[in-house]
Amino acid sequence: MHDLTSLILSASYAGLFAIVFAETGLLLGFFLPGDTLLLAAGVLAAGGALSLGGIMAAVVAGAVLGCVAGYFIGGKVGPRVFASQDARYFRPEYVTRAELFFARYGWLAVVLARFVPVVRTLVPTMAGVSRMPLAPFTLYNIVGAILWGVSVPALGYFLGDRIPHLDRYILLIVGGFVVISIVPVLLKVMQARRAT
Fold first, then answer.
1. Element (H, E) at 116
2. pLDDT of 149
3. Helical H runs in the chain?
4. Which residues neighbour 4 within 8 Å (Cβ) at sequence distance 6 or greater?
5. How many angstroms separate the CA atoms of 82 and 10, rounded?
6. Would you kindly state where each structural domain of the chain is located, as residue ranges?
7. CA dist 72 to 12, 76, 132, Å?
8. How far is 15 from 101, CA to CA, in rounded Å?
9. pLDDT of residue 54
10. How many CB atoms lie within 10 A of CB 108?
């Protein structure tokens, strides 16, 4: 946690924006510490080191613009990848399945993906690959970014103001957060599989 705190303080708001942008928009950003970073930033804001409003603004902006970048990367690169010769991994029927999924659950996927590590990196790109219409994608992207970019730092701020030495429990809190986020998604997937 000390290293993460140092990173946040040295990079400040521009660093938060860049990390969130990379995690949500670039496929290689899946390893970045999204939820942990936001909680830790909220804890720092509770201690007065950063402004909570500044953190939220940087995170929401990075999340919205990162998702838009991921969407356009998926739209540009996706068709070429799925038309390639490597049929083991990139079959055209996968695109058809993705199109059906986003037509049916697009809003849910884009909004809830924010709260699930790795999934939040993949969903914008897959929405672009499946040609989800840009207008609803943008609306759901903004809604999800605001929910995630406000609630997670606010949780860190709230808890950091009330629990001494919260930095010792950040990973446990993030783990609980991820489990709570994944359960509705898994239930929806199981329900969809039973229906087919």
1. none
2. 94
3. 2-25, 34-46, 52-82, 92-113, 119-129, 134-162, 170-195
4. 33, 36, 37, 40, 170
5. 41
6. 2-195
7. 28, 6, 11
8. 34
9. 94
10. 15
Sign of CA dihedral 93, 95, 99, 101: positive
Using CA atoms, how far apart are residues 44 and 5, in angstroms rounded to an integer? 8
Residues comprising the chain, all counted: 196
Position 126, amino acid: M
Distance in angstroms (rounded) separating the CA atoms of residues 105 and 171: 30
Q: Which residues have a Cβ under 8 Å from the Cβ of 79 and sit 6 or more positions away?
A: 95, 129
Q: Residue 88 carries which side chain, given as an amino acid letter?
A: R
Give residue 1's pLDDT: 47
Residue 190 to residue 195: CA distance in whole angstroms: 9
71 neighbors 128 (Cβ within 8 angstroms):
yes
pLDDT means per 10 residues, the chain with 196 residues, are: 60 88 80 76 85 95 95 82 57 65 76 82 85 91 94 87 64 63 66 68
DSSP character at residue 84: S
